[in-house]
Design a protein that fits this description.
Distance between the termini: 86 Å
Structural class: mainly beta
Order of helices and strands: HHEEEEEEEEHEEEEEEEEEHEE
Number of helices: 4
Number of strands: 19
Largest sheet: 4 strands, antiparallel
Shape: elongated
């Protein structure tokens, strides 16, 4: 332990002279590993890029902090700095994940870009600060909005008092990471009258194609005063709305309720 401290002290003293540190200290390497989305809500979207810091020296090295900045579509949006990360093991590596939160100040413009262009170019860059040395890193990529289509609508139970419906929604996620859906709401209305509101929590959209099942229950009696009124006009127009921080979708379909009268 004392030997390691002496070596680190020597490096700190001579870090300004490359000829003296040559062969004694190898600068840690920083490589991009992955990115994920953390919290996703109407008020906050959190990016979690992960970088691997590799120490090729035979002694541990402390990482003081990581400074970073985030740009969206080549426009700088925010910057920040972490607390002390810890210590890199000798001849080892350490994964470090950043928590970059886009709050209400930037979300409005961000969501407008996402819904308009269906994608967003982002860049995360900065420095790993260790032993007074800034070690740069950078990663540029694209965030894609998932493609959403209504695959099917099934009436699983039908009576004059209640209709139970399942709306099947296909989602195509072109990103190379899962998308969290902590705040997805959906509703159904008819002729301007609200019939049902629901929500999904703790959902994740896997990479590639997946499906969401949205259960709904409505009461035909809210739209038809009695069986006779349903008999004269058995068509019930329905308007579905699906909303999340990452996408929105609307869907219209008319259900013929004449089968309930048989």
């Amino acid at each position: 332990m004392i030997k390691n401290l002496i070596v680190v002290a020597m490096i700190t003293l001579v870090s300004g002279c490359s000829t003296l540190t040559e062969g004694l200290f190898k600068q840690p390497q920083v490589g991009y590993k992955s990115i994920a989305l953390g919290e996703v809500s109407m008020d906050r979207i959190e990016l979690n890029p992960t970088f691997t810091i590799t120490n090729e020296n035979g002694y541990p090295i402390p990482v003081n902090s990581i400074s970073y900045e985030l740009s969206l579509n080549n426009e700088k949006m925010l910057n920040g700095e972490t607390d002390a990360i810890g210590t890199l093991p000798a001849n080892g590596d350490k994964d470090v994940s950043l928590s970059i939160a886009l709050t209400q100040e930037t979300l409005t413009s961000l969501q407008q870009l996402l819904f308009k262009n269906r994608k967003l170019d982002y860049q995360v860059k900065g420095n790993v600060n260790t032993l007074g040395l800034p070690i740069p890193f950078e990663k540029s990529a694209t965030l894609y909005i998932p493609e959403v289509t209504i695959a099917d609508m099934k009436v699983v139970n039908a009576s004059f008092s209640q209709l139970d419906i399942v709306l099947s929604v296909d989602v195509d996620n072109q990103n190379d990471f899962n998308l969290p859906l902590d705040d997805l709401t959906y509703s159904v209305s008819s002729k301007g009258n609200d019939l049902f509101k629901g929500a999904l929590t703790s959902q994740k959209i896997s990479t590639g194609k997946s499906s969401l099942q949205l259960p709904l229950s409505i009461k035909p009696s809210d739209m038809f005063s009695n069986v006779f009124s349903m008999l004269t006009n058995p068509d019930l127009p329905l308007h579905f709305e699906i909303s999340s921080p990452l996408f929105t979708k609307s869907y219209d379909q008319t259900i013929n309720l004449s089968s309930l009268l048989k």
